Amino acid sequence: MLCGTSIGAYVGAAYAGGKLDDLEHWVRDLTKLRQTRLFDFQFGGSGIIAGRKFLQFFDKALPDREIEDLPKRFACVCTDLRSGHEVWLQSGSLSEAVRASCALPSLVPAVRIDGRWLLDGALVNPIPVSVCRAMGAHFVIAVNLNSDVFNPVNGTAPKEGNENGEALMKRVTNLPGGEFFRRIASHQSDEPSIVTVLTQSLTIIQDRISRSRLAGDPPDVAIAPRLGDIGVFQFERADDCIAAGEAAVEQAAPALEALMQRIEPVA
Predict the structure, then answer these.
(1) CB contact at 8 A, 28 and 238
(2) Using CA atoms, how far apart are residues 107 and 165, in angstroms rounded to an integer?
(3) What's the pLDDT tens digit per position in 237-263?
(4) 157 falls in which pLDDT band (50, 70, 90)?
(5) Options 95, 120, 147, 210, the catalytic residue
(6) What is the pLDDT of residues 59-69, one digit of tens each?
(7) What is the 3-state secondary structure (H, E, C) of 246-264?
(8) Which end of the chain is more exposed for a tag (fewer CB within 10 A), N or C?
(9) What angle is formed at CA 11 by the lines to CA 84 and CA 63, rounded to 5 degrees?
(10) In the predicted model, what is the mean pLDDT of residues 185-190?
């Protein structure tokens, strides 16, 4: 089974649907120019990026797919905007569920599902080990993308959150509505932008909640790619992300092999 939160729901859904290779090809082809086309700006909603283009992969690879019809059991985590409760989506539209789990507060709109407005599950459960346990998993392999966001990587400091905001603003200035967005997100040279504050605040929340929840319910194996120098919106660096993931798996190989030895074959 697979459980995912935010971008983990995005990748997990592709894997559960047997389309991980297709997702890899898609993201590896994302240049800076192609990436800007994913930012479909809107004004007046609950988020400034509509998010429809961000899910175009699912529209093509897994059209009209229901979660319960996937070859593998899958659940994604969201947050109920009104109650703050943790919500596990295990049925219904796959693309809508992923969109809700990836709905970064104020950046991507909340999604209404079954009468509830849902948004990024990272606000309540960034690494859903507990969801896997509740669904019956005897062993859990967890992936933590925030293990080094505030720690030096290879002797260098991690990327400042301000660079994430600056990178995004540079890419959207020439898009429809981009100049307006640049104006509302403008800032003094020594002051973080609105986008920076939003993304960095979410990173801080994820880091603190992850530490707490993993301490109370640790996975059997943790895989922690070193991604501290990669910004939230740097989708064009898929090659670097994948390489970091492969390196993290290699580092965790002894623990993974030991875990496999503990798993008894199913009769």
Answers:
(1) yes
(2) 12
(3) 999 999 999 999 999 999 999 999 988
(4) very low
(5) 120
(6) 888 888 999 99
(7) HHHHHHCHHHHHHHHHHCC
(8) C
(9) 95
(10) 60
- Of 209, 205, 198, 187, the closest CA to residue 231 belongs to 198
Distance of alpha carbon 15 from alpha carbon 4, whole angstroms: 11
pLDDT bracket for residue 162 (50, 70, 90)? very low
- Alpha carbon distance 245, 31 (integer Å): 20
pLDDT at residue 160 tops 70: no
Cα–Cα distance measured from residue 54 to residue 115, given in angstroms and rounded to the nearest whole number: 23
User: What is the residue-wise DSSP string for 151-198?
Assistant: S-BTTBPPPPHHHHHHHHHHHHTTSTTHHHHHHHT---TTS--HHHHH
pLDDT band at 112 (very low <50, low <70, confident <90, very high): very high
CA distance 154 to 84: 38
DSSP state of 239: H
Residue 120 is among the residues annotated as catalytic for this protein: yes
Phi-psi group of 51: left, alpha or beta (phi > 0 → left; psi -120 to 50 → alpha; rest → beta)? left
Q: Which of 6, 130, 147, 210 is catalytic?
A: 6
- d(Cα 86, Cα 82) in Å, to the nearest integer? 11
Six-digit token string for 145: 């993308």
